[in-house]
Amino acid sequence: MFKQLSLLFSITHSQSILRRYFIVNGFDGALTMLGIIMGFYMSDSIKLAVIMNTCLGAAIALGMSGLISAYVSESAEQKKQLGDLEQAMVKDLGSSAYGEAARLLPYVTAAVNSLSPLIIALIIISPIWAATLSFELPIGAVETAMLIAFLILFLLGVFLGRISGTYWLWSGIRTLFIAIVTAGLIFLVAT
User: Fold this and answer.
1) In angstroms, what CA-CA distances link 127 with 25, 75, 105, 146?
2) Per-residue pLDDT tens for 103-159?
3) How far apart are CA 80 and CA 71, in angstroms?
4) Helix, strand, coil percent content, the chain, rounded in steps of 5
5) How far apart are CA 152 and CA 168, in angstroms?
6) Smallest Cα–Cα separation from 107: which of 75, 81, 65, 76?
7) Residue 94: pLDDT above 70?
8) Does residue 37 contact residue 146 with C-beta atoms inside 8 Å?
9) Whole-prediction pTM
């Protein structure tokens, strides 16, 4: 399986596409959870179960949206590229390694596009889930979830810095700043 994926990536040069999907949708998941949690934080006394269910519903919706949108768009793009290449080569490439890669890539892309926001959202809301199960946390569950969201956004920035060859700390601080501005806007609107 890993050899087949490695061949897929080398044939289609899709590593950068998958990284972009992971980062873009990771940001979507993290900022969406931060926004929902901040909204509840600014509200009067909301039960943790309500916050948990709202966040879980949004996480599942983000995952499904990522799955369907990536599969549909990548499937169309890969079919077009395969058709263009077949036309240029005047040959059917359906049973070739490139044809197999063109059929498999939409599934891999859809999985990355779906799992990135879903997993990140689940990590962020894990303290809220733990608190609903009566686990004691050093600080409040909502505050811990917000801190995790900030940390994940910082780490996504660090990852971007490593990819682009820029200073990782600056890149992390830049994405953390975006998260702080988002939280600030929510705070302004909610008060």
Assistant:
1) 21, 37, 35, 10
2) 888 898 899 999 999 999 999 999 999 999 988 889 999 999 999 999 999 999 999
3) 14
4) 85, 0, 15
5) 14
6) 75
7) no
8) yes
9) 0.87
Please give the radius of gyration of the chain, using alpha carbons only, rounded to the nearest integer: 20
Mean pLDDT, range 97-101, rounded to an integer: 75
Q: Three-state SS for 64? A: helix
Element (H, E) at 54: helix 48-89
| φ/ψ (deg, to 5) at 104 | -85, -35
Q: What is the pLDDT of residue 84?
A: 78
Q: Considering only CA atoms, which of 111, 103, 100 is closest in space to residue 79?
A: 103
- Sorted by sequence, the CB contacts under 8 Å of residue 86 that are 6+ apart come out as 92, 93
Evaluate whether 33 touches 146 at the Cβ level (below 8 Å). Answer: no
Q: Report residue 138 as tokens.
A: 């050093």
Joined together, the tokens standing for residue 84 give 């263009």
Better-predicted residue by pLDDT, 86 or 74: 74
Q: How far apart are CA 136 and CA 89, in angstroms?
A: 64
**Crossing angle between the packed helical segments 141-164 and 48-89, to the nearest 10 degrees:** 20
Q: What is the DSSP string of 158-187?
A: HHHHHHHTS-HHHHHHHHHHHHHHHHHHHH
Structure tokens given for 188: 């302004």
